[in-house]
Design brief:
48% of the residues lie in helices and 31% in strands. By secondary structure, the protein is an alpha+beta fold. It has a six-stranded mixed β-sheet with strand order 2-1-6-5-4-3. The chain is elongated, with a radius of gyration of 23 Å.
């Protein structure tokens, strides 16, 4: 229900405006003030709905925005933003017992890895958001360019789990799904083992 109120697709208010205009024109032609007033009311409701949807950011929209900021922070080497988006106990895992736990450890590994491969850029080509219980899951496909591949783009897919902590949404867990040209064992091998 929250998504329907605050994250409405643009076409729904547009359809309401069109319906309101049709009512208004019909009421005006037939000289029926009630029908004309109904049309104006429907148009006003559609505009109000669109404005509220634009101004109110849902948890899904917040996590989508923060996912984009997270990727951008790595590329830009904006480590304060990178740290701010994660909870202190964040963990990187591949779904097995292996993991990198803790913001400081993970940040050190990402900084080292970005320099080691010569990360130049990354762009998100697809992003899906779902809500499960108290978590928001974003799944992204990222194309990155780096010196290690001679600027040949590498595509990878990642799942980020966001949880509410201290009044804000923070990254709780990061999982690689697929890295083009590398197995998950190779991804683990490039990172420190903790």
């Amino acid at each position: 229900m929250r998504d329907l109120l605050f994250s409405v697709p643009w076409y729904l208010p547009t359809l309401l405006v069109i319906a309101g205009l049709a009512l208004f024109v019909s009421g005006n032609r037939r000289q029926k003030p009630q029908l004309r007033t109904s049309g104006v009311a429907v148009i006003g409701l559609a505009i109000l709905w669109a404005v509220v949807s634009y101004l109110v950011e849902t948890p899904k929209e917040i996590c989508e925005r923060e996912t984009r900021q997270y990727v951008r922070a790595i590329v830009d080497r904006d480590w304060p933003t990178f740290d701010r988006l994660m909870e202190p106990a964040v963990r990187f895992t591949d779904g097995t017992d292996w993991q990198i736990a803790g913001r400081d450890t993970w940040a050190a590994d990402v900084k080292s890895g970005a320099e080691q491969i010569g990360l130049k850029g990354a762009s998100i080509s697809s992003l899906t958001v779902s809500e499960t219980g108290d978590a928001i899951i974003t799944t992204i496909t990222v194309y990155s360019t780096q010196d290690a591949t001679l600027d040949r783009p590498v595509d990878s897919e990642w799942t980020l789990e966001w949880r509410r902590s201290g009044g804000q949404w923070l990254l709780h867990e990061l999982r690689p799904v697929r890295v083009s040209g590398a197995s998950l064992d190779q991804v683990r091998g490039m990172l420190r083992k903790h």
